[in-house]
Amino acid sequence: MKVVILAGGSGTRLWPLSRDRYPKQFIKLQGKKDSLFQETFRRSLMLSSIDNIFVVTNEKYKFLVIGAIEELGYIYNEDNILVEPEAKNTLPAIYTAVVAITKKEDDTVIVFPSDHIITKNDEFVSIIVETEKLSIDSIITFGVKPDSPNTGYGYISPGAKKITGYEVESFKEKPTSNKAKEYIDKGYYWNAGIFLFNTKFFSNEVYKHSPEIFHAFNSSKSIVEAYSKIHENISIDYGILEKSNSVSVVPVNIGWNDLGSFDSFYDVFEEDEAHNISCEQNIVIESTNNIIQSYDGKIVAAVGIQDLIIIDNRDALLVCKKDQSQKVKNVVEELKNRNDLRSEYHFQDYRPWGQYTVLEEEENLYKIKRITVNQGRSISYQLHNHRSEHWIILRGIAKVTINEKTKNVYSGESIFFREGEKHRLENAGEVPLEIIEIQIGHYLSEDDILRFEDDRVKA
User: Fold this and answer.
1) Could you give the 3-state DSSP secondary structure of residue 29?
2) Residue 400: CA atoms inside 13 Å, Cβ hemisphere, count?
3) Which helix (H) or strand (E) holds 425?
4) How far apart are CA 233 and CA 438, in angstroms?
5) Residue 121 — very low, low, confident or very high, per pLDDT cuts 50/70/90?
6) Rounded CA separation 399/393 (Å)
7) Closest CA to 369 of 347, 388, 337
8) What is the DSSP letter of 221?
9) CA quadruple 24, 25, 27, 29: dihedral positive or negative?
10) Distance separating alpha carbons of residues 333 and 356, to the nearest angstrom
11) Cα 379 to Cα 170, 260, 354, 360, 450, distances in angstroms
12) Which helix (H) or strand (E) holds 53?
């Protein structure tokens, strides 16, 4: 069995925790040991060897995928990371993996979104293995029995009984509250967005129901070329499942949640006696039914409040009524309309070589960062036209190149270079390299970088 993990989503309904450059699947929520992506990868290893796990993502998340897997202690073949040149929704993403897999052999495939929680992994793995025999002549989707009339999920109407599941009678879009109650009364299931199928059978269904996508891939030599021939965003639901007569639903009780909004935290995370979900550092007095999240080191004091979502990051604060959480995505849309980078970036950002945190800045004057460069990694050979930089080494050994001259700089030492000077920073030690970077100049944006050819890791 092959596993396909979809890891390209941006999770806008969980802003400001989730942002375009660092979305919810890579975040360790509420102090969890692993991110959602890492939990998905562990589950995948229960079904297949690491060489048979494929990740579909985009270029800006590729290094997050690699870093997350490395953190779990695994060595992963980067050829199994399939990079979409642009987002075209779930059907092109899934078919990208199907084409890659069938170049070697036809096989059974299970498709996992990377941003869902499943708490009963052993049970689910057993169900998948048992259900595999249904996938010879049917696309399998997994249905979760609703425990509330949720308007954030699609619904599945089951038809005739079929071994461990049912033929799908119809799919229903995200409903109104009244419709959701009606669907529950009729015995409908939530659509979990997890699929099981045989690659040959699936390709035939794509050929019949989404020929543009089929021919785009089968007439192209690369993913980039194939995507250039796809002229619309199309989900697997709309492109295949709603049109095919060969779709089955298998009911599951697996502790599933897609964390589609902050309201869903109540289904996943522990609450106190007053039904608040909050970090231990916060102070909550005479308050009920609230979600309160703050970043490490900052206390939120809540007194006499009810039914609020308060998400306090260093650079953004969300205050929202609980019944309005689905509208958080509208905030992200407004930020994008304003060209505000807080829709995309945290004050902490992750790169192929490591990460950085902006500690303090004043526009057109200075910016102070704390930078971590992982073992064996380096920042590309580059220069800045509008700023000088001062590096102070906190921990580790920095191999610094300035205008072709290289020297090692040790903990407690510092080095300075002016605007226009070529420079490179490498971790030359056995531990993560940590530095303080002080930028000084009249233009301090991230696009003031001119890179040069380099055989080291670039970022």
Assistant:
1) helix
2) 21
3) strand 423-427
4) 43
5) very high
6) 11
7) 347
8) S
9) positive
10) 26
11) 52, 35, 9, 21, 12
12) strand 53-58
pLDDT digits (tens, 9 = 90+) for 216-262: 999 999 999 999 999 989 999 999 999 999 999 999 999 999 888 88
Q: What is the mean pLDDT of residues 325-334?
A: 90
Which token pair is 120? 């009963």
The label of the residue with tokens 């020297």 reads: 407
In the chain, % helix, strand, coil (3-state, to 5) comes to 30, 35, 35
**DSSP label of 260:** -
Classified by CATH at the fold level, domain 2-260 comes out as: Spore Coat Polysaccharide Biosynthesis Protein SpsA; Chain A (3.90.550)
CATH of domain 348-451: 2.60.120.10
Sequence ranges of the domains in the chain: 2-260, 264-328, 348-451
DSSP category for residue 306: B
CA 217 to the chain's CA centroid: 25
| Residue 399: per-residue pLDDT | 96
Distances (CA, A) of 351 to 59, 111, 386, 401: 11, 27, 22, 20
* DSSP 8-state class, residue 403: T
pTM for the whole structure: 0.84
Q: Tell me the two tokens of residue 201.
A: 């059978």
Distance, CA of 296 to CA of 294 (rounded, Å): 7
| Percentage above 70 pLDDT, the chain | 98
| The residue type at 111 | V
Q: Which element (helix H / strand E) includes 205?
A: helix 199-209
Nearest to 286 by CA among 267, 298, 273, 269: 273
Quote the CA–CA distance of 365 and 386 in Å, as a whole number.
11
Task: Pick left, alpha or beta for residue 404 (phi over 0 → left; psi -120 to 50 → alpha; otherwise beta).
Answer: left
E strands, 213-365, in order: 247-252, 256-257, 277-278, 283-285, 291-294, 301-303, 308-312, 317-321, 348-351, 354-362
